[in-house]
Design goal:
The protein has 2 domains: 6-138 and 389-435, 3-Layer(aba) Sandwich (Rossmann fold), CATH 3.40.50; 142-382, Rossmann fold, CATH 3.40.50.300. It has 20 helices and 12 strands. It has helices at 16-32, 49-55, 70-84, 98-106, 119-130, 133-140, 157-172, 200-205, 212-218, 235-238, 243-254, 270-278, 290-306, 329-336, 348-357, 361-364, 369-382, 395-402, 406-410, 419-435; strands at 6-12, 37-43, 60-64, 89-92, 111-113, 144-149, 176-180, 226-229, 259-263, 281-286, 313-320, 340-345. A 7-stranded parallel sheet has the order 8-7-9-6-10-11-12, with helices on both faces. Strands 2-1-3-4-5 form a 5-stranded parallel sheet, with helices on both faces. Strand 11 (313-320), helix 14 (329-336) and strand 12 form a beta-alpha-beta unit. Helix 1 (16-32) packs across helix 5, helix 7 packs across helix 17 (369-382) and helix 11 (243-254) runs parallel beside helix 12. The chain binds adenosine-5'-triphosphate and magnesium ion.
C-alpha cells in the first residue's frame, strides 16, 4: 500500500487564530505537494476517543494545550497513547515549559509546534511524520488479538475473557470483538444474558460476504460496548469446521475490529492454535491449586514446543487471595518458571452475582475491586504489558536527543505545573502502580 493521498488531521484546539494559521500553513503545504492533501477537522473542545479516533480515523493529531484546559488536554493525550499509540501526535502551547514538554512526551507526543506558527517549522514536522504513514495505514487495519486459555476447565477463562473485553471496550471506545472459540458448549453469550442471532458458523458460511455492512447487521454491538461472536449452537456443527477456515475468518475479522478477545477454552485444538499463532498475546490462566498448577506446567511445555516465548504468552493468576494461598506470588512464579503478569482477586459473591444476572462486572458495580482490576488488565494489554509507571533512565538526555530544539522550547518560560496536572498525575501514578 502506498502513502495515503488524503491526510486527515484532527486538530484539537479552541484557539481560532492558531487554528487559522495552522490551516493556512497546511494549505500552503497541500499546494506545494503534488501527492498529498491535508484535511483538517477541528475539535474546539476535548473530544471523546470515539469522536476523534474511531469515527474520524485521523492520520495525525495536533493538540493545542491551552493553559485553562491543560489537565483535560493532557488526559486526552494519555488516553490517545493508550488506545492509538501509533497515531503520531504533535502538541503545541502558547506557554511551553519543560514540565509540559515532559508530560507530553511521556504521553507519546512526537513533536511540538511553537507559537506563533512558523510555516517552515510546520512543514518540517509534517514531513517528518509523513515518512511513518504507510506503515501506520497497514497497522491500522488489523486488530490485536488476545487469546485467553487455560489447560483446565472451571478456573475462570470465560469470566476473565468476557470481563476484560468489556473493560477494554469501555476504557478505549474501540471496536472490541469477543469471540467464543469454544467449539462445544461455549458459554460466552450466557455471561451477557445474550441470545445471538448469528454464530461463528454463519460467518464461516458467508465468509465471502463479510464486510463492515454485513458485520454491522449480523453482529450488533452489545450494550456493554463489545461485539459478541458466539460459538456453534450445536456440537455437531463444530465437527465440520476446518482449521484453515478459522484462520481465514480470523484474518478477515482483524480488518474490522480494533481488538479481538478470544475465549479459547481448555483444549489445544488446531483452530485454537491457529488463532494463537497470530495473537499478540496468549493469556494463560492458572490458579494456585496443585492440579491446576500441574496442568499449567504441562501447557507451558507445549507452548515451548510450539515456539511461543514469554512475552507472547503471559501468565494470569485467577482467584488469588494472598491470605489463604499456600504459596505467595514469587513462589508461584518459581514453580511455573515464568513471572505472573497479573493476578485477579477472588471475589465469589460479585462473580456469582454477575454470572447469575448475565451482567458483566463493569455494569454490575463499576467501583468494585474486580471492575478496577479488569480495567488495569485492559490497560496492560493495550500497553503491551509495559510496567505502567516505567520511566526511561537518563530521561533528560533522551529528551534532548529526541528534540533538537529542546533548549529553545524550554528557555525562559519555565513555570510551575498547573494544579490540575499535579493532582491528576499523582492519582494516575498511584492507580497505575497497583496494576503492575
Ligand atoms: N476471580 C474470581 N473470583 C470468584 N469467582 C470466580 C473468579 N473467576 C471465576 N470465578 C467463578 O468461577 C466459575 C467458573 O468460571 P468460568 O466459567 O469463567 O470458568 P471456565 O474456565 O471458563 O470454565 P469452563 O470449563 O466451563 O469453560 C464461575 O462461577 C465464575 O463466577
Ligand atoms: Mg469457559
Amino acid at each position: 500500500m502506498g502513502k495515503p493521498v488524503d491526510i486527515k488531521i484532527a486538530l484539537i484546539s479552541s484557539n481560532t487564530s492558531f487554528n487559522e494559521d495552522l490551516k493556512k500553513a497546511l494549505d500552503q503545504e497541500s499546494r506545494a505537494k503534488k501527492d498529498e492533501t491535508f484535511h483538517v477537522k477541528e475539535f474546539h473542545s476535548v473530544p471523546t476517543m470515539e469522536e476523534a479516533v474511531i469515527h474520524y480515523s485521523p492520520h495525525m493529531v495536533i493538540v493545542n494545550i491551552e493553559t485553562d484546559m491543560r489537565s483535560d488536554k493532557l488526559f486526552f493525550l494519555d488516553q490517545l497513547s493508550r488506545i492509538a499509540g501509533r497515531i503520531p501526535v504533535v502538541a503545541s502551547a502558547a506557554e511551553m515549559d519543560s514540565d509540559l514538554i515532559l508530560s507530553c512526551l511521556k504521553k507519546g507526543t512526537r513533536d511540538f509546534i511553537k507559537q506563533p506558527i512558523d510555516s517552515i517549522e510546520v512543514r518540517q514536522i509534517i514531513n517528518r511524520l509523513l515518512t511513518d504513514l504507510p506503515q501506520l495505514e497497514e497497522d491500522r487495519q488489523l486488530a490485536d488479538t488476545f487469546s485467553f486459555f487455560s489447560y483446565k476447565g472451571g478456573i475462570g477463562t470465560t469470566f476473565l475473557a468476557a470481563n476484560t473485553a468489556v473493560a477494554l471496550a469501555q476504557m478505549t471506545g474501540a471496536k472490541v470483538l469477543l469471540w467464543d472459540l469454544v467449539m462445544q458448549n461455549g458459554d460466552v453469550p450466557f455471561f451477557f444474558d445474550y441470545e445471538p442471532s448469528a454464530t461463528m458458523i454463519d460467518l464461516l458460511e458467508n465468509i465471502g460476504a463479510i464486510d463492515g455492512h454485513y458485520l454491522k447487521g449480523t453482529l450488533p454491538t452489545h450494550s456493554t460496548g463489545v461485539t459478541i461472536l458466539a460459538g456453534p449452537k450445536r456440537p455437531e456443527e463444530a465437527e465440520t469446521v476446518r482449521n484453515d477456515q478459522i484462520q481465514n475468518l480470523h484474518e478477515t475479522l482483524r480488518e474490522y475490529y480494533d481488538y479481538i478477545i478470544v475465549d479459547s477454552g481448555h483444549t489445544l485444538t488446531d483452530p485454537v492454535i491457529s488463532v494463537m499463532d497470530y495473537a499478540k498475546n496468549i493469556l494463560l490462566i492458572t490458579d494456585l491449586h496443585l492440579p491446576v498448577l500441574k496442568n499449567t506446567l504441562r501447557c507451558l511445555d507445549v507452548f515451548e514446543r510450539l515456539g511461543y516465548v514469554e512475552g507472547k504468552f503471559k501468565l494470569l493468576l485467577n482467584r488469588y487471595n494472598s491470605k489463604y494461598e499456600k504459596f505467595d506470588l514469587s513462589k508461584a512464579s518459581e514453580i511455573l518458571r515464568y513471572p505472573i503478569a497479573f493476578s485477579v482477586m477472588n471475589d465469589y459473591v460479585t462473580a456469582s452475582r454477575s454470572l447469575n444476572a448475565g451482567i458483566p462486572i463493569a455494569d454490575l458495580d463499576r467501583e468494585c475491586g474486580l471492575a478496577k482490576q479488569f480495567t488495569q488488565l485492559a490497560q496492560l494489554l493495550v500497553r503491551e504489558f509495559m510496567p505502567l509507571e516505567e520511566k526511561p533512565a537518563n530521561w533528560m538526555e533522551r529528551l534532548k536527543l529526541m528534540l533538537p530544539n529542546f533548549e529553545s522550547l524550554v528557555s525562559a518560560r519555565k513555570g510551575p505545573p498547573s494544579k490540575g496536572e499535579t493532582v491528576k498525575g499523582s492519582a494516575e501514578e498511584k492507580e497505575q502502580s497497583h496494576a503492575a
